[in-house]
Amino acid sequence: MALEPGTIIEGKVTGITQFGAFISFDEGKTGLVHISEIAPEYVKNIRDHVKENDVVKAKILSVDAGGKISLSIKQAILEERAKAKKAPRKQAPKRPDDFDWSKKDKPTSFEDMMAKFKQDSDEKLSDMKKGLDSKRGSSGYRRSNGSF
After folding, report:
1. All residues at 6 or more sequence positions from 32 whose CB lies less than 8 Å from its CB, including other chains
2. Given pLDDT bands bounded at 50, 70 and 90, which one contains residue 90?
3. pTM for the whole thing?
4. Could you tell me the sign of the dihedral formed by the alpha carbons of 88, 92, 97, 101, in that order?
């Protein structure tokens, strides 16, 4: 496997220090995940996010001439979230003809339809009355000449 920046690898946490975590992968190679690259949120204690022997995914940030490998768990997580957001979603029908009306729950009898209509009507009337009461104010009375 080529160690190129941008590649996401899977490895096991072999050590944890105050400044980062060491990840072992691909036939004994080891890289370091700096504390700032552990998680998308602020990390005060690395052990709250990873434990030794955890298997994690990390993105290769860089490989220097001395063979040191810099990794980022945070960027691997953010890339996976971005891919999940790009996944195709089922689109809502654009026209009434596109909607599958057979899937909608239909009341089984006339009485059920009337009961549902009455319930919906009562809810709408209740909402409408609440809206009108709030617009009228709290005093609730008018003077005889029609002014407040």
Report:
1. 20, 21, 22, 23, 68, 69, 70, 71
2. low
3. 0.56
4. positive
